Amino acid sequence: MRRFAFTVIAALAVLALAVAGCGSSGKAKQGGTVTILDTEGGVDSLDPGYWYYQTDYKELGPTQRQLYGWKPTETKPTLDLATALPKASDGGKTLTVKIQPGIKYSAPLQTRTVKAADIKYAIERCFLPQVGNGYASLYYSDIVGADAVKSGKTTELSGITTPDDTTLVIKTTKPAGVLTSGGALGMPCTVPVPKDYAQKYDKGKTSTYGEHEVFTGPYMVVNDGKGKITGYEAGKRLSLVRNPSWDKKTDFRPAYFDRIEVKGGFDATVAARKTLTGKAMIGGDYAAPPVAVLKSALSSRKDQVSIEPSGGNRYISLDTKVKPLDNVNVRRAISAAIDRTALRQTRGGPTLGTPATHFIAPGTGGFEAAGAEKGPGFDFTANPKSDLAVAAKYLKKAGYASGKYNGPPLLTVADDASPAKETAEAFQSEVEQIGIKLKLREVPHATMLAKFCQVPKAAVAICPNLGWGADFFAPQSMIAPLFHGKNIVPSGNVNSAQVNDPNLNAQIDKAIALTDPAAADKAWGELDKQVTDQSYFIAWLWDNNIGLESSDVNGVPSKFNSGEWDLAFSSLKK
Amino acid sequence: MQLFWRRLRHDRVALSAAGFITLLVLVAVFAPLVIDLVGARPPNKQSTKYLDSFGTPTGPSGENIFGVDQLGRDVFSRVVYGARVSLEVAMLATALSVALGVLVGMVAGYYRGWVDTILSRFIDVLLAFPILLLALGIGASCSLGNGCLGGLLQPGLSVVVFVIAFVNWTYIARIIRGQVLSLREKEFVEAARALGASDRRIIFREILPNLVAPIIVYSTLIIPTNILFEAALSFLGVGVQPPNPSWGAMIANATEIFDTAWWYMVFPGAALLLTVLAFNLLGDGLQDALNPRAGKS
């Protein structure tokens, strides 16, 4: 009986896994066109070397293949171009990856197959300033020769070799967990780029390879077949059609749609309503629809709404170089004073996420080790509401005898658009209760980052509208970029708290070198506890991604891409 | 003066407008008392109690007679305190632009010649700028970080007042210059000059008193323009800084949730409309009363 029960359970589990792995394949219809209505300008660049944001992954991801891909419900990389996970040798400092033979490019290189050298060049060009990649330095810096490439001395990574067309050997200066696990090799920097074809476009101030790109995925951007993209107008439209060079047998993605049409320039409310009431549409480049639309959708069209943890957080950054935020107890007092549930209300309430108690979000390694949902147990993060008594305790410790701050107002730069604007104003009111007055300046989001919050010289004390998401579920991507002192740069600085603690830096370096996933998760969880204790950043929400779809669409959300729809697994209903 | 009062007394519309403005000024001055009397919460007091589980604001009720905004703040209190901002900006900016405009207009009109040419061309140049864009530019650059002009202009009310005064004084200057060109040829000015009066004395003691009527009329007409200007700047995000309430900023914030929270736009919108209308009607009434040649059919 036990045996029978086990067999039935096992069969159900296999079935569930098959369904999960392939999306809603049972109800999926092969073919058809899906339309996406964008609001914010759509994709950032066609160039896979540049992709780093959800919309890029969602709308362009199905046009390419990487060494490793990501099934929608899985948190571990899946084999894509690679035939196995990286084989480590030399104490984890040499990784060998074999790739599938016979994978073809789209026109005009349709007769050519992907070679290991194309992936080597793809990784190398991610270091080129003209490509503008945002993560190569974070994950590929330990490859031998990366320093020489970064400094511009050479463009070739001596640490990557290709003994034959299907073998890629990566040598690193020290073991790197994110490479060994395959996670960082499942990023678009491993989308093959044929050097002899692309190099001419990679010259000049900005690479133009994206305008002449060749594709390996199930779809391609409409082009003239001679190397010129014709199906893309920035912010207006993006047309994807099937890639005739793609062989379904070699890919883990079903790719049901025949065509994917993206239209830009919509008002968020209009786009969201059209998606819900129209046919064959799927939500666009907005993380959540306007609250009014969401509210009505959840009451009358619940099955057209997907709510998925994004794997990211929202946080308030406190610049430790600006007084009085150089005092850890003032920072802790602010953490205690904020009402995380009230801040969440400004974004749409409980549907939008869970109040955060530490930095690493659920679904990412290290979350449990950092205390899971309950958190590390600090009194200044324990209460999701304002705890003014705890805040006063810390302010007294910081030397404010009355338990209230009485210094000058603090420069705070926020986003001027809803809902971030309301979040900043709610925060302003909350810290005023402990005597902290803010000089609150509201500016457009891009200005907030480019001129203030990512520029240490601007000396902005508080940035209340920041967010961060994990790359490939790796806790390293949540901690190392934001808290390692070496990442403080004059512009584009994401270490906006300007944390540069040698002890913390050393611990981060040590954690990066861990190749055992369990040990790495534990180490990053411990580091999360430390940075939460120091209150450099106050994480206040682990947010959800809200996806909308038309009633005739089987949308499949992707865990890897923060809960956004995976277009290579979504389909029309039968 | 008697003629002025007699005319104004018979203009019921202007008197009603004056009554409304007086009430508005009283409400603005005694705002804390007014919201206490009504039992409303302070304008910046937030409360999630008045938001639903999605963070949507609730409408007019016994507790919040004008409803609440996205942060659960009482819209009535914010409209009342918004009147303070509107009137403060309008009065200060009008006073500044009138002072500057009258001074420049009198100097240009009285001295004529190259002084007039330089000042008039300068005014022409300023008038050639698209005013809202100019104001937006100044407002935006002064609203970032620690303000502009070495911190002299701090983001907030002072920037708005400066911007409005800077772009509006030219209209007054033109009108005053025209009046002074005519007044300087009058017998009383000739007489003062013959008696050896200095230019300064003639300008400020002889000519200025004769400009009081047009100054009052145009000031009254500029005030509503300035109120609208402040609202426009706040609407476009370069006006009064949060969390201070401003009718323009409230209307801007309300646009995104108008379909679910009509009250957030309607009440500040109505306050703005009625205030501007009242000032315009009073201005018209004053113009009719002060201008002996004006006749009502």
Kindly describe this structure.
The complex is a heterodimer of chains A (574) and B (297). Chain A is α+β, with helices and mostly antiparallel strands and 574 residues long. Chain A contains 18 helices and 21 strands. Chain A has helices at 2-21, 54-60, 116-125, 136-139, 146-150, 177-180, 195-198, 268-277, 291-300, 328-337, 340-345, 379-382, 388-397, 420-432, 445-453, 476-483, 502-512, 517-534; strands at 28-29, 33-37, 68-69, 78-79, 87-89, 94-98, 160-164, 167-171, 219-221, 232-233, 237-242, 259-263, 281-282, 305-318, 353-355, 410-415, 438-443, 462-469, 537-548, 553-554, 571-573. In chain A, the strands form 6 sheets. In chain A, strands 2, 9, 10, 11, 12 and 13 form a 6-stranded mixed β-sheet that branches. A 4-stranded antiparallel β-sheet of chain A has the order 5-6-8-7, with helices on one face. Chain A has a 4-stranded antiparallel β-sheet with strand order 15-19-14-18, sandwiched between helices. In chain A, helix 14 (420-432) links the parallel strand 16 (410-415) and strand 17. Chain A is globular, with a radius of gyration of 24 Å. The two termini of chain A are 38 Å apart. Residues 1-25 of chain A have low confidence and may be disordered. With 297 residues, chain B is mainly α. Chain B has helices spanning 2-10, 12-29, 31-38, 75-111, 113-128, 131-142, 157-183, 187-194, 199-207, 212-235, 247-255, 262-290. The model of chain B has no long low-confidence stretch (mean pLDDT 88). Helices cover 69% and strands 0% of the residues of chain B. Chain B starts with a helix and ends in a 7-residue tail after the last helix.
